[in-house]
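ugh ok so i messed up the first submission bc i forgot one of the chains. this is the corrected input, ALL of the components this time, i swear. 578 residues overall. if the numbers dont match what u have on ur side tell me asap before i send this to the collaborators (the ones from the other lab, u know who)
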Amino acid sequence: MITRLFLQTHRKPILSDEDAAALEAACARTQEFAAKRIIVREQMPLTQCTLLLNGFIERFKDTAEGRRQILAIHVPGDFVDLHSYPLKRLEHSVAALTPVTIATFPHPEIRALTERSAALTELLWRSTLVDAAINREWIVSVGARSAAARLAHLFCEMFMRLERIGMTRELEFDFPVTQIDLADATGLTAVHANRMLRQLREQGLVEFRQGLVKILNWDALRDFAGFDPGYLFSIDRSVLAVRLPVTVQGRTQTGAGAGPCGTIGSFTATSRACAIGALRQVRAEHGRD
Amino acid sequence: MITRLFLQTHRKPILSDEDAAALEAACARTQEFAAKRIIVREQMPLTQCTLLLNGFIERFKDTAEGRRQILAIHVPGDFVDLHSYPLKRLEHSVAALTPVTIATFPHPEIRALTERSAALTELLWRSTLVDAAINREWIVSVGARSAAARLAHLFCEMFMRLERIGMTRELEFDFPVTQIDLADATGLTAVHANRMLRQLREQGLVEFRQGLVKILNWDALRDFAGFDPGYLFSIDRSVLAVRLPVTVQGRTQTGAGAGPCGTIGSFTATSRACAIGALRQVRAEHGRD
DNA sequence: CGTTTCATTGATCAGCGTCAATCGCTGTGG
DNA sequence: CCACAGCGATTGACGCTGATCAATGAAACG
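and heres the new structure output, hopefully the right one now
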């Protein structure tokens, strides 16, 4: 079943059996690519979407200065370029990080799906938005986290996403990328990424060696990275909350209650100092830092 | 007409008059907020979406260390949190940068729209994906551009987005944000942002003074920022190409042609050196750098 | 087996953050 | 009308994080 992992990752909204079957049937064919092969080149007109079945895929842009910025790393079950359906072209390239197997869904087939079922459309739409939420978390990573925390955060994210599809073993998982890839994803140089990986290892947080990630201390790693899985929009946030007590939640307590639906806020976004103070307090209460 | 600027920004797919009217009618009410007011707080369950009619809005996250990362800046005509419809909650907060007027669209109304028209759904979907493309360009900014180039790039982006909705005058436009906001958007400190703004001014590229941006030399600014408007998915790329000759286009020429539909690439993503060399060459041909 | 890629480490240095002080503007209350 | 507080802009001094340059070894590959 081609769409199994996709549906396992994105469970809402719940599809009828017919819709699920229609989605499955929309696949035109499967295909394999060697590692490092470019699958989609930026700005080319596209007529199909790519569902990743096996292996790892990167989306990236190269800058004029010769730096590569990886924008996303995809795992099996991810609809790598579903956004090409409404957009018709991509503003970035897509390449295989490892040997991969993909399934392709022609745009006309997807159009037929959207005309057939609003629920199915919403599921597809939603999956592209979870992707976007991950994009935004990466903005936070490169914009506001230290080098070591960026790497730690990436490991946390990959762990949760791979666990969702059964690709972890206890606290370790295969992550067959190079240190150069890690550097390109986190906005660092390979040299510095290497040093930070050593630091993470020596701090007893996480170990990365030849494509294998071993999480040595999940709680410490999560705190160090400032990782809050909320942005992954996984199925059951309450379960995650138990397993991963959310540090940063305290933020929303800065000030009294908001309107009933949360859209009518009643507080300003100012007073950084105040918010920071509150945060430090929350962190202190949890005995961290 | 509430949706005028939105439809002006997002012209594809083209809507029927009925669909456009239905969209217009889905608005429940308009509302005003003072500057710095939080409009949507992260993680709160949402039941409506926000269309910005007037003013500027930011989407942001605060980190545990007290840093604020701005994830997006919205201009009139932007559906600020349309992604809350499929996602039901947001992983970030939304606040007014200036006094704003917004229109709210209840989720049930949007659901009705999606059940009514696949074309309308695609337009809405597409607009959330253009947003995501901007998110990704911001990853490139904070991850791979120098401090000054990040600011320059932001000014280029805002200029193009504001021009689309008629909010520029020749080469200047109102951008009523503080230097702190600019710093939070670009992953810099306010102090350093200030210095870089001075540098950009002294280099004769762009001037930012009390909420007014004056572009002193568009070509030089665009080149300095490495700005390629393709990621904005504006209406007519060819027009933009004439007006703003696309430097970075040359990249896709690195290697011979790809498959007919662009999905079957035939080159590897390796050999950075080669690609960089080719880029330098392209840039040299254009007499830059 | 040569060639290339990746990992690793050292030395050096620059870009950007941090700390601190000043100045101007605005709003506010006495 | 003035004193004062708060915020934003600006500038200087200093230091750290992370980039750059360089070299080596090991492993993968054709």
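quick check: The first strand of chain B starts at residue 29 and ends at 33. that seems consistent at least. The domain at 145-246 of chain B is CATH 1.10.10.10 (Arc Repressor Mutant, subunit A).
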